[in-house]
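Narrative of activities, Objective 1.

The group set out to show that a structural description can be obtained from nothing but a protein's sequence at a throughput compatible with the screening campaign. Below is one input-output pair from the validation batch, recorded exactly as produced.
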Amino acid sequence: MALSNGVNFALVCRHATAVWLVLGDPRMQGFETEIQLDPRLNRTGDHWHVRVEGLPVEFCYGYRVDGPVGDGFRFDPEIVLLDPYARAVSYGGAWGEHSPNPRRSLVTDAMEDREPTVPPGIPLEDTIIYELHVRGYTVDPSSGVTNPGTFAGLSEKIDHLRDLGVTAVELLPIDEFDETDCAFVNPLTGERLLNFWGYNTIAFAAPKANYAVKAGPSEPWDEVGAMVDAFHEAGMEVFLDIVFNHTAESGDDGPTYSFRGFDNPLYYMLDEKGEYLDFSGCGNSFNADHPVVRTFLLACLRNWVAEAGVDGFRFDLASVLGRDRRGRVQLSPPTINRISEDSLLYQTKLIAEPWDAGGLYQVGTFPGGGRWGDWNGRYRDDVRRFWRGEPGMTSDLATRICGSDDLYAGRGPLSSINFITCHDGFTLHDLVAYDHKRNEANGEGNRDGADANFSWNCGVEGPTDDPGVLALRARQVRNLMATLLISQGVPMILGGDEFLRTQGGNNNAWCQDNAVSWVDWRLAETNADFLRFVRAMIALRKAHPVFRRRAFFGAGGGPPAILWHGVEPVKPDFSATSRSLAFALDGRGRDRPGVVDRDFYVAMNAWSEDLDFQIPASPSGRPWRRVVDTALAAPDDFTDVDAGPEVEATSRYRVHQRSMIILASGA
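Output recorded for this entry:
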C-alpha cells in the first residue's frame, strides 16, 4: 500500500476539552485507529492540530469532541464528526437508500489541483440563465442519456441547451446533502418521500457523490470539473445554488453531522437561552457573521471557483447572511462584503435570493456594493398579475419591463434577475393551468407551498381537452415568455419550461423524486411549436442590444429611448382599469455608442376583448414588419425580422384578447 508523506490535520474548536482524530480505511466498515490530541502539544489558540506520518494515500477520517453541555453547547464524544472543510464524503449508499455505513471525511491522492478550462466570460447584459436540477434533468428514461441523473448526464444535454440559446446553467444544490432525511410519506401511494432538491447541506465543500457516475473518493470532483469544462467549451457558464443560510442539522431534534458537534454557538444563531433562531424555516440559521464561519464560507466558494471553475453563485435565502449572531439585520454585513470584494471571486456573478423566512425582504435593497443581482420577486408577481388580467397593473408592468428602476435606482437594470417561474412554485405550464396548488402528494395536507401564485387556469382547472382553453393557454405561455425575453435585466428560465413541463399543479415539489419533478423529454416533440417559439425569442434578444441595456432608459440624457403608447400613439393608459400597454424602443445606440439597432414596437393586450392599436411611426422613421403575434398559430406566431408582413405606420392592428405583438423596423 502506498503511503503519504505525512498529513496535517487541523480544526477550530474553542470550547472543546478533548479531541480525538479517528482514522480508517474507506473500503472497510468501522475504524482502525484513534489519536487523542494533547492540548499541551496539539493546541494553538482555538486550533487543534496534529501531523500523522505513514498514512495510506487514501483514507477516511473524522473527529470526536468532548466539552461542556448546556448553554447552547451540544458536545457528544460518541459521535464521529465530519470535517467542515472535507472535500469528499464517504457514505456507500445508492441514491435514496439509507446506508448503515456512517459518513466520513475522505482523502485520496487523486484529489489534486486541476486546471479548469478558460471560462467564456459572458457579459452580464448578454446572460440568459437556465435553472435546473442535476438529477431531475436527465433521470427520466425519456432523456436518452447514457448516465441519467448525473453530472455526466447533464453534459450530454449541452447540445439542447446551446441550441436553445441560454448562456448559463444554474444548478440546484450539488454539494453533499442527505436526500433520505425527509420525514413525509405520500398519502396517496404510501411512497416514502425524499429530500429531492437538496437544500439541506451536510458538507459545503464536497460534491454530491450520488450525482457522479462513480461515487468514489475522487470521482465526484473529477466529474464536476469535466462537466464545467464541457459547458465552457460550448460557450456557456455554470452557476451553483449555494445554501449558506442553514444546514442539514436542523433544529433541536435534528441529526449531528459536523458543525453543532464542534461548536454549536459558533456555527449557529442562538437566542439568550441557547435555542436556535430560525430565519430559514428549516430549524436553524447558520451564524455567517462569525469571523471563523465567514472564513469557512469564503474558502468553500473559492474552492468551487479554483478547483471546478464555476462562474457564479446563487445564494438561497441570502438575507440570512446579513444578520448578526442574534438575528439582527446589519446595514453593512461583513460576510456579504467579504464575498463581494474577494479577489478570487471578483469575476464571478453573484445572485441573491434577497429575502428570508424571518420576514426580511430586500429586493432592491440587498447589500453588497452593487456586485449582486437580485432574484426580482416583484418582476415575477407583476408580470403574472398583468397577464392573468388584473386591472391597474399596466404601470407596474412598464416599470418591470424597463428593468425596475424603482428598485435599482443607482445600480442599473442588470441588478434585476427577471423570472416568471423557478424551481420553487408552478412551472410555466401549470401557471396557466391551475388556480390552486395541488400538493397533496407531499404529505402535508396541501398546507405547504405558496398560496399566492397569481396564476390563472384559463377557465378549466388542470388537464382539459377543450380546444378553446388549450388555445388560450398556448397564447398565455407565449405572452409570458416573450415578455420575459424583451424585458431589461437578466432573464432566467426554469428548466423544461421551453417545452412546457408540468408538475401536475404541485408548486413545492422539493420531496418528489419521481415523474412530478423529472423532466419528460418527450414533451420536446409534443410541444415542438412552443420550443421553436422560445428558441426564436431567445435568438431575438441575443441579436438586438436594444433589449439588453446596461443603463436605465433616460440615463445620459438625449431624446427618449423608449416611447409609451396606448391604443392610440403617445396616449398610454396607466389608469386603474387599464389592461393594455404599448411602447416603442429607439435602436439608435444611446446605450452603446456607435451601435445602431432596429427599432421595436410592442403592444400587449391582457383584456378579454380584442383591441385595435394604431401603429405609430418608428422612432427612426424606418418601416415596420411583424415579428411576433402570440394570437397566431405556429409558425406564424414568430417570423424573422426581415420576413414578416409589413405593417404600415398609422394603420390599425387588431391585437386579439390575451395576446401581444412585436414589430421590428428595417435595418
